[in-house]
Amino acid sequence: MEFEVDSTYRRIREHDFLSLGACPMKKIYCTCGSIVDVDKDYFRMRMNLGKSVECPHCRNIRIGHEIDNLNDHFLGVTEDEFGFAYF
Q1: To which H or E segment does residue 38 belong?
Q2: In contact, 10 and 20? CB cutoff 8 Å
């Protein structure tokens, strides 16, 4: 039994195969071990700024820690010698 392939889908797939050389994505290897596709312009900008390129998961974890640290700083939360936080 043969399946009818939609002509729009066929054009999209042909375009994907024809434009492989001009692909705007770059594969990176994150420190967590995952391989991710990132935009080449984003990659080039981060490298020019001297910053590391990371996967979305690691980026979200880093931003979460930064937000927590900023909240602790501006709310006046400090830690004692045992690592317990208090106001």
Answers
A1: strand 35-39
A2: no
